[in-house]
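Archive maintenance. Older records in this collection stored only the sequence; we are now back-filling the structure field for every entry so that each record is complete. The fields below show one back-filled record exactly as it appears after the update. Entries are processed alphabetically, and CheW-like domain-containing protein is next in the queue.

ARCHIVE ENTRY
Title: CheW-like domain-containing protein
Organism field: Candidatus Schekmanbacteria bacterium RBG_13_48_7
Length field: 179
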Amino acid sequence: MNIEQVETSEQSVNLDNANPIFNDVTQKAQVLIFKVHEERFGLEIKYIQRIDSLGTITPMPKVPDFMEGIINLRGTITTLIEFSKFSSKSSKSFLSPSHIIVLQNERMNLGLIVEMIYDVIYIPIHDLQEDENLPADVVNSYIKCIVRVQDKIINIVHAERIFREIEELDFNQFEDNSE
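Back-filled structure field:
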């Protein structure tokens, strides 16, 4: 497996009908690899609807700092989350955000703003199980497990935890930061 930077164009990658592809012999799942602050992360393809370039963001009032706003992606309004702020709960922004990974489950669409998309790779399913041996601060975060591919460490993102936290937000607690 090779993790090289994928050249991207202005066109989006549509993953509307993508399901995880499993190899019957080796039981592998497809995982999209992306970069945030010099760290590599992975998301299982089954949660990804599309990948798009970052366009004009419309700010929203009374949202947490990690919610950058909304964007119209081909007629669908999508809430944007800056993954670096969301995952670390810090206010540190990207050096150069450039892509949106649109996640979808049966309840909502979310756009994760990331710096760079690398590749889609196959990872054995048994390596994608939640790891009980991770430190408590990692287990309580959005990391499902950590895998090693060649000489690279990849933090596999727990997409369902992201959806769950967004659904449980109480927007009445936030000040208007849309200005």
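Update note: The helical segments are 83-88, 136-139, 159-167. The radius of gyration is 16 Å.
Entry marked complete.
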